[in-house]
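Page 37, top half.
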Amino acid sequence: MSDFVELSDGRRFGLATYGAADGLPVLALHGAPASRIMFDVTDKAAKKLGLRILCPERPGYGVTEKEATAPTLANRAADLEKIADRLTLGRFAVLGVSGGGPYAVALAERVGERVLGVGLVSPMGPIAEFHAAQKNGEIDNEFGRLSHGHKVFFLNLIEHKTLFAAQAKMSAAAFQAAPQSFAYLFAKILSSGDSQVLKQPHVQESLIAMTLEALRQGISGGLGDMEIFSKPWNLDLERVTQPTVMWQGTADRIVPAPVTYWLASRLPNARLEKLPDAGHFWVYDHVSDVLETLAGISRRD
């Protein structure tokens, strides 16, 4: 079910709710580009597990208005806290998928024990800090090297905003004109694991719907995320002591897996599940497993 949540300053954020109406609340943070309806695939499993999935939409996506100021991770984490307050959530779990990862970690760092547990699936990690640390020799190659493509896409392109925006607009227009064809080509360039997942009709339907909705206002949502991804998080990760489980496929070509591994090593109470030969969209075949694990670590009391 889609709706809005309005903050005290009048800003309205798109909100989709799935699962059990009276279940344990899970603040679910969508990927990039994506939208509030990304978590439609959780509805059946969430009802069975007694979870209430609440997916607020980030600025510029779907029906959520654009930001009036430059986006920052700190400001967005503050907004998520306000959203949780407005929804009268006491303690809750957090699930960050792909581009939702930075926001999940930032919220957990901000509100402390109010977050019961954290789930991170194929998360976008602190790539700018990882790159700087590796460049300065502060970490060795135990986590793997950052690929040239990931460096260009996540760190360099956003420095040329006009060019990047033009490329993004062309890609968005191509997707909107022929989403099925775009989804087919997208599957072809990913790992074999992702290709198998993306061939499934229900996965294609979900991905196309959430992406079309993400582009309702154009590309501003995606550009805002990319600006945040390209910068240091500046978080005190030692404060993220909540039980955390991270799932990362070794064949993920979308987010840089070495950064995820490094992030896992820096979170005090994180368990990393490395998924051999799995790609970025592994979660579509394992929604129930992820939610069951998150429910388990969040109900430990």
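Page 37, bottom half:
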Amino acid sequence: MSKEQQIDHTEQENDVKVYELGFHFVPTIAEDDVPVQFSHLKSMIEKRGGEFISEDFPKMIPLSYEISKTVKALKKRYNNAYFGWVKFTLAADQIGDLEKEVKAFEPILRYLVISTVKESTLVEPKEDRKLKEDSEGVVNEAQLDKKLEELAV
């Protein structure tokens, strides 16, 4: 392998990419302990040189289906979990080790790491988008009257 090919290969491995880690924590974590566990999860990213872009603190949600997890030869089933996510940049050659550590992290019920873009990919509910569009535009009296008549019916 030539020196140029070697350098290109090394640059690709050290290439910084944007990732998003979505996760469920087991619901048996005490509510006061959730910030501690979330902080520990984020420290796994930081120690590998990751930089945070955005995040959503874990919140208790009902699961769409039951998820089971085996811990110390005991299978437990869960119908709710703490769901959160974090978006970050990280060298591509570090993501495999991060995933191994996240998988072994005891409070994790389920997780997913995806490659994404730096820009926000959150989609507002349709009603909010319509309201925002209407509030940014100029109010037309005829349209307002028509809308009021529709609502009165």
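Margin note: The longest helix spans residues 34-46.
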